[in-house]
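hey m, so remember when u said the tokens were messed up on ur end? i reran from scratch. heres the input so u can diff it against urs
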Amino acid sequence: MDKLSEIMAAKRHALRKQIRPVRDQELERLGRMQTQGGSFLKALARKDRLSVIAEIKRKSPSAGEIAAATLDAVEQAREYINAEADCLSILTDTDFFGGTLQDLWDVVEFLECHNRKTPCLRKDFMLHPIQVAEAAEAGARCILIIVRALEDDEIKALRDAAGIAGLDVLYEIHEERELEKALRFDPKIVGVNNRDLKRFKTDLAVSEFLIPQIPDGIVKVSESGIFDIEDAERARACGADAILVGEALMRAENPEQLIEAFHNA
């Protein structure tokens, strides 16, 4: 079993007791409750600079421990927003990435208290609309759909639930056939993951190959494997509107300086 299949199997097992019908009325109500942040899509669709999605990530299967388990997600978010990160990505998977849904709640509360409109992505292995409801209730403005990991009916259910709740969707791909599959769902944001989630090998050439194939009018994100200004420039040169950066920012002595450098790529 490859690593992504292992993760998805574990997620399905963990979710089995939570799954219940999620009514449209519940999603609509949660959408009306949204008070934090603006549109995730609009935050990335800038023309004047490379947008940055700054990620809070304590560990990963490929990198191992990146930060202490006791890392304060709010303090990390504070550094990111001080550097004017365009969006935040909050990992909420516990077993493989060391995050929690509470991290998302805490970061959104912090943003609300400081009247900051930075929109947040719930970064997790999404399978069922109940996770969309959780994301909306916690204040996320976007969810992740990993195209490779899901059947068409699962993608449709997640997309429809997100739309009713007023959330954007980041469709993540790694291969041409996944782009073809994603395009069937009329995506507004497509992220190219430079890391192969089967083997956790990373190569920026994946973005350089796939991003030029994404149709105009779709916001293009290069994800993973971006550590310095040269990497950001490669992503920008092949047409990326935004980059999603986790490990490099988590390990950086000065995340604010690095985000500024990325913006100027």
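this time it looks ok to me. The chain is about 40% helix and 20% strand. if urs says something different then somethings off w ur setup not the seq
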